[in-house]
Amino acid sequence: MKVLANDGISKSGILALEKGGFEVITTKVAQEQVANFINENNVDVILVRSATKVRKDIIDACPGIKIIGRGGVGMDNIDVDYAKSKGIHVINTPASSSESVAELVFGHLFSGVRFLHDSNRNMPLEGDSNFDGLKKAYANGTELRGKTLGIVGIGRIGQATAKMALGLGMKVIAADSFIPEVDVKVEFFDGQSITTKIVSQSLESLFKEADFITLHVPAQNGYIIGEKEFEILKDGVGIVNCARGGVIDEVALVKALDSGKVAFAGLDVFESEPKPEMAILMHSKISLTPHIGAATGEAQDRIGTELASQIITLLS
């Protein structure tokens, strides 16, 4: 059987699949050619990340597909229900990238509270001529310890983020429509651990209480943080979105940053991805990454081997 990993797969995933008797194709096929390639090469399984879309047209055009796999969590680039109605298995790897995404959240938080994103832009330009000026400009940093982190969506990635926040000495609050409460276990290198219960609260109360907000939700029909929500946030709040573009109103975000209502934002995902708006890309108060939340070697290894395991189980 043949597996097309159109958006790539780790070496460990390839080896596991080949050991299971599968042929793995890693040719990058353009979106408009995916259906033809699948049919011409008798592909049984297509694996994607966030780039390739597997919609109704491809599903209808490729009756030989047995499995559609998403290397990651969100599956908004796949018509999941329609695929299942056609008897196709749809799989993903919800646990594999949690730690990597959570670490990126804190990369953006540390960047924001210590102005790293802006100082890294300006030090190469002015570091030799305006060192004291830059030192003064970036002198009013903030510690994360003792502050309140509001996590919107306390699923796997939200919980991984909560563990890191607790380790830093932050207060953690959460809002989640589907998870009323959760026990979060923070494990240490020597085998010791602590467990704390996080009880979900209303979004409005979280917005009013949090010093920093991080979003861990799937794609939405509307904004979770729009113009009205920005009004009730604490003054000087920091916001990070490593979830999905479109959950924050970026026009309202820029206004809030310009007014000082929001101190900084960290964005890994964007409304108009893969062509983010220039007002976002050029803003001095936004820390930017190009949708790389799960892009660590460790996460990609886990994703590859987890996908391989599921495929082998389903088709063996």
Automatic annotation (TrEMBL):
The lineage of its organism: Bacteria, Pseudomonadati, Bacteroidota, Flavobacteriia, Flavobacteriales. Keywords: NAD, Oxidoreductase. Residues 107-293 form the D-isomer specific 2-hydroxyacid dehydrogenase NAD-binding domain. Belongs to the D-isomer specific 2-hydroxyacid dehydrogenase family. This is D-2-hydroxyacid dehydrogenase. The keyword NAD applies. It comes from Flavobacterium chungbukense. Residues 9-315 form the D-isomer specific 2-hydroxyacid dehydrogenase catalytic domain.
